[in-house]
Amino acid sequence: MSTESAVVLVSGGMDSATAVYEAMEQGYEPYFLHTSYGQRTEAKEFECAEALAGEVDAADFLHIETGHLVQIGGSSLTDEEMDVADADLESDEIPTSYVPFRNANLLSMATSYAEATDSSTLFIGAHSEDFSGYPDCRPAFFDAFQQVIDVGTKPETEIDLKAPFVEWSKSDIAERGLELGVPYEMTWSCYREQEPACGTCDACAFRLEAFRNAGSRDPIAYAKRPKFS
Asked: Binding positions for Zn(2+) (predicted)?
């Protein structure tokens, strides 16, 4: 019996890398989709995603470059005139790093890729600490997008959208990834810099705290390693 294939949205970060290993643990052959959309650290993210594809011998590595999210703007990740804010882990405000409706854009491309490759499943590594600030990371969004997939693909197409960590914390993801042997030295989360990581943006803060909570040391280089909690 042949292994089922799954498209995994691979950003180059730790969550999506863990999603890759989770997909493989569930018996799927991973097809990587990585998108460069003009984000500040796109070169480093691409480097990490490509290295991970080689590490796991991915069935395919599709790299899509698109400029429309930069042209639209509205995010500190894509607009150089907007500063990336320092971490505030207690804030309930939508952060400036939110890219308007990004996940819908990425999932649309991933759905096309999954349908074209006859992949049965689509994985995304979004999680609960994301949806506290990013509206397109909420469980309700993924439930709604599953309906979009169901009605917008061929009648015979069946693609299951999986967000396995959607109710998890970053610490939960780190613990699971360490258990699965995810090579986190091949991943990148910093919103500001491409080497070393700044250590003070939201992405760095959540990541550093996750590794501490998991009783491990984050293997990538940081300019600073502050404690946030």
From this structure: 190, 198, 201, 204
